Amino acid sequence: MDFIKTTEKESNYNHLEKMSVQQLLTSINKEDKTVPLAVEKAVPQIESLIDQAVLKLKNGGRIFYLGAGTSGRLGIVDASECPPTFGVPHDLVIGLIAGGDIAIREAVEFAEDSKTQGWKDLQKHNITENDIVIGIAASGTTPYVIHALKICNDHKITTGCITCNKDSPLSQAAQFPIEVIVGPEFVTGSSRMKAGTAQKLVLNMITTTVMIQLGKVKGNKMVDMQLSNNKLVDRGIKMIMSELNISRTEAQSLLEHYKNVRASIEAYTNGNKENK
Predict the structure, then answer these.
(1) Which residues face 136 on adjacent strands?
(2) How does DSSP classify residue 60?
């Protein structure tokens, strides 16, 4: 099957250095507007992968994101936001990057070219058939990711991927591929731009939808969020006030006692029922 790496194609724009700031911004924004439309076309693929992820997590499994460079960093960002947003353990969604933690801030030369390290990194977390591994690579050609997914398949571990090229080697390796075809980048080959935006949008969709399916959202509120700063404490108080139709003082007292929005709401509701 022919594989065309559209993320590496020549930009639709040229002589960028001759453009004014306004022209640059307008052109970048014009390209960015095409990304949500590309994501929309991939919704059926995203749904299929999410169905698998929900099934795994409901049965005690975990989500692993595996990537290199920008793709790896995006996976780590998404994974790291799950505990504070949804109150889940830090090891429920895990982001791994080629080159290890130092690669989060600095490029590690040739780390993405390893055909063995991706699986080794997964093994450090005692990966099992209960888990799901999602490889992230804009190009769809990153050896660190591709070969890890192939080994996962051999071990009957469910695999998915997020890529921005159609019929890439990564898509062929993944059981549940997501292909968001964004086309050429504004700066030729700079896949941190449209491809990176597309990956972030898909990651948002995956974890948000999975956590809602797991019951981590009530109505439209993050009732299990960690109260890790004053802003979030204030948000928690307002959630309780709105849900229970009580005063700020009452809501604050509940939150100080139960340390959790959901627990506060349930305790108050159950208490009212008992008094009736």
Answers:
(1) 67, 162
(2) T
Residue type, 84: P
Write out the two tokens for 82: 């799950």
- Which residue type is seen at 120? K
Strand partners, 96: 66
Amino acid at 82: C
At residue 241, what is the residue type? Answer: M
Q: Yes or no: say if 97 and 68 are a contact pair by the CB < 8 Å rule.
A: yes
Tokens at 230, concatenated: 């004053």
Beta-strand runs (E) in the chain: 63-67, 93-97, 132-136, 158-163, 176-179
List the pLDDT tens digit at each of the 276 positions of the chain: 468 899 999 999 999 999 999 999 999 999 999 999 999 999 999 999 999 999 999 999 999 999 999 999 999 999 999 999 999 999 999 999 999 999 999 888 889 999 999 999 999 999 999 999 999 999 999 999 999 999 999 999 999 999 999 999 999 999 999 999 999 999 999 999 999 999 999 999 999 999 999 999 999 999 999 999 999 999 999 999 999 999 999 999 999 999 999 999 999 998 854 443
Query: Which amino acid does the sequence have at 126?
Result: N
Alpha carbons 249 and 257: distance in angstroms, whole number: 12
Q: Cα(180)–Cα(73) distance, rounded to whole angstroms?
A: 18
Return the active site residues: 81, 112
CA nearest neighbour of 142 among 165, 123, 121:
165
Query: Which residue from 96, 92, 88, 97 is spatially nearest to 62, judged by alpha carbons?
Result: 92
